[in-house]
Amino acid sequence: MPFPPLVRNEALVKSHRRCCVCHEFGGRSVNVHHIIQEADGGPNTIENAICLCLRCHAEAGHFNSRHPMGTKYSPTELRAHRDQWWQHCLDHPDEPFQPSLDVHYEKPIMLRSATLHKYRLIATYTNQFKEAQTSWKIQMFIPIFVPANSMGFERNEKIIDGIVYNTFEYESNRKIYPGDSVDIIPSLDTLFIEYQFNTEVFWSLHEKPHVVFWHFFTSDAKPIDGEKPLAELNDF
Description:
Elements: H1 5-15, E1 31-34, E2 49-52, H2 54-61, H3 75-91, E3 101-113, E4 116-126, E5 136-143, E6 148-151, E7 154-160, E8 163-172, E9 181-185, E10 192-198, H4 199-207, E11 211-218, E12 224-229
Antiparallel strand pairs: 1-2, 3-4, 4-9, 4-10, 5-8, 5-11, 6-10, 7-8, 11-12
């Protein structure tokens, strides 16, 4: 069973919706994780709850003891991370955390065959400041070997460190008020970025890891630069 809503909300608020391990802002993608799993007798209480981003949640929950590569997160370590981060959030309730953009993907919108999946890239910005962001611009960079197209975005090509990228750019004067979350890259019929994963793309990532990266600018805050492995933007 999941945590009761009151326990879940308390954990999210105590953590400022950030991962207690890596401190990355999770937005809608944050998980409230059982430190001791229910199957092992862990209760659905705040003492057994920790907020984790998708990456840390996967690493905490899917360690294979039969093939022990790396170091497993122990319950003791998770509690220490959590308590340390909760104390930091308590001591800095108004801290203007480094803003972040939550970049993820929408499940395949079309499955043409077992060897071709299509996805739409989603980017969500949450205004954590006390002032409204009065305008913004997004630049998204996808390696050109990944088939991609868009609607409503200005599209170009750019070579960076010897790699050719498709660049997608969009800007808006739409305000983002404090506390609001806005899909900067939505999945609409008139505004989207769509990309494909096929067998060639899949094996290319095995030969060399590649990333999608971005620059996000707002009128009243520092630019946000980030990246995400392409391997995390598909379920091919």
